[in-house]
Amino acid sequence: MDRIKSILRVLATVILAIIGIFLFSFAKNYRRALNAPAHLAPQFILLSFDGGKSIDVWEDTLNFSKKLNSEGKPVHFTYFINAAYFLAPENAKSYAPPLKPRGTSIINFSEDASHIDTRVKEVNRAILEGHEIASHLVGHFSGKSWNKNNWEQEFDSFDDIMSNIESKNPGLHLGQPSLLEQNPIRGFRAPYLHTNTHMYEVLHERKFAYDASEVSKGHEWPTIDTEGLWHIPYSTVEIGDSRTPVTAMDALMYDLHDHEGKGNLKRGTAEWNAKKEEVLKSYRDYFKKSYGGNRAPISIGYHFWIHNDGLYWEALKEFASEACGKPDVRCTTFSEFVTYLNSQPDLRN
Fold this sequence. Notes:
Layout: H1 2-34, E1 43-51, H2 55-70, E2 78-81, H3 113-128, E3 132-135, H4 148-163, H5 165-168, E4 187-188, H6 197-205, E5 210-211, E6 223-224, E7 230-231, E8 236-239, E9 244-247, H7 250-259, H8 270-291, E10 298-303, H9 311-323, E11 329-331, H10 334-342, H11 345-348
Parallel strand pairs: 1-2, 1-10, 1-11, 2-3, 4-5, 5-7
Antiparallel strand pairs: 6-7, 8-9
C-alpha cells in the first residue's frame, strides 16, 4: 500500500509539473501571439495624413495640434508627403515616373511655384512643432507590379525633388530653406497601400525605420522583420449598426458611405451628424478595447482633402480631444513610437 501511495505521489508531481509547463508555455505563446509587451504598455495613438497639397489642411491640422498641446493633451502627427506637390506644372517633366511618360502624376502637381514656397513653410513649421515628415513617394502610382528598379527609380525621384526644390523649379526662391535636410525621413507608406517584395528590398537597403502600408485584422502589435524594419499597420474599425469592418482611413469610410448613397453630405444636417457620430463611435469602441486590453497601437490615417464636408475630420478631432489627455495615452508620431518599440526587448523577439 505504501508503495502504491508513493507511486501515486510521484505521478501527481509529474502531472502537476506537466500542467505547469503547459500553462507557462500557453501564456508565453499567447503573449507572443498578441505580440504585446510583458508589462502594461502606454496606449499609442498614431494619427497621420497622406498627400501634402492643401495649405488649408496643413494649417488646420497644425493649429488643432497646437490647441490640444496648450490644453495639456499633446498630439503630434505624421505627414506622409508626395513630392509631386513640390514641382510646378511647367517643371513636371523633370520627374520621370516608372513605366510612365515624363511629367505624369496621378495627383497632378503644385498649383504654381508660389504654393511650393508656402508648402515648404508648412513642412518647416510641422518639423519645428514636433511633427514628423515621412514619404508617400512622388506621383501616387500603384507599385504592386513594379520590379526593384522601378521602386528605386521612384524613391530616387522623391529624394531628388525634395533635396532640390529650388533648382527643380527655376525662378523659385524659397522664403526659408527646407528643414528636411536636417531631419532625414525614416518612414514610408505606399500609395494605395500597394506593396510587393521588391518594395521591402528597397526599404531595407535604404535603412528605413518603419513601413505603414499594411492593415491589421485586429488589435495587433507591430512586428519587426529580420532586416530591422518595423511593420506598423493601420487599425481596422467597425462602422455602423452592421459593424462593417473598414480600414481606419477617411477615404475608405467615405467609400463605404458613398456606396450606401450617403456621399456628399452637408455639415450640420441630421444625416451628416449621424454619420459623424457613427465614425466617432467606431474610434471610441476601438480605443476602449485596446486601452483596456493589450494596448496595441491605434493607427488612423487621413488625406489632404475634405470628404463629406469635413465629417471625418470633425470626428477625428473629437476623438483626439477625448483620448489624448487620458493617463498613459501617447498621441505621437510613428518615429517616436518606433523609438519606444526599439527600447522593448520582448517586442523584438
